[in-house]
Amino acid sequence: MSAKGKNRSPTSMEKCSKCNKAGNPADKKLSITCDCCKDLLCGDCHGLSPTEIRVFELKTVARVVTFLCADCRSTMTQLPSILKKLNDLTDEVQQLRLRQNMMATEAAVHELTERKYRAQNIIVYDIPESTSENIQEKKKHDSEEVAKLIRGVCNIDCSKAKMFRLGAPKSADAPPRPLKVILKSKSEALAVLRNKGKLSKPGSIKADLTPLQREYLKYLREELDKRISSGEKDVTIKYIQGQPKIVKNKILSNSQKNC
Ligand SMILES: [Zn+2]
Ligand SMILES: [Zn+2]
Prior knowledge:
By secondary structure, the chain is α+β, with helices and mostly antiparallel strands. Helix content is about 40%, strand content about 10%. The chain contains six helices and eight strands. The longest helix is centred in the middle third of the chain and has 49 residues, at about 70-120.
């Protein structure tokens, strides 16, 4: 990069930004600095006549003519198209932001609807699948097994609850597929989840969470592990008004129950 500043004759220290030759103070063709980029051009490179040079030698405040080097002149001619592109890009960004907001709102509405629907469901694991070929018999088997399991948890009649296996059928020796059980209400599902600790395997009943809820729970568990390994005590994940949170055990009141 050449020296910056007002138009002046090159000294032996200054070099032309184009040909990189050091300035010659004895040179009659004076050097000049671009008013835009401040690069210095030697007499061989700026292509100005002695009269033009005299104009540019006037002090900056006294003259209205601006000297631009070839690069800056070329950039100036591209300015209108650059500005147009900038305007187009600004419009595009605005459109994208609008679309993004719209998608985020749609996703939030979908998530809320999905959570509301899933709130009355439970997922039941480890119930062996019937080997019968008859679909009605398979359903009867699942229904009876689920009713038996839930009787051990709380007093809810789920004999008419809808239920179905999750995932495509697998080979006979594969682990049984989980069952999604649709109960009559959210309060029935909560009652089962709050009392599942009575089971010998409480993990065989879980809440029906959306992928986002599962992801958030995973994040909370990782955070909890970090806090415990950094020495924090008495912290755990509890459901407060249906939302999982990391809390200190001592701040929990009796009314806040674990799901
Ligand atoms: Zn030069
Ligand atoms: Zn320039």
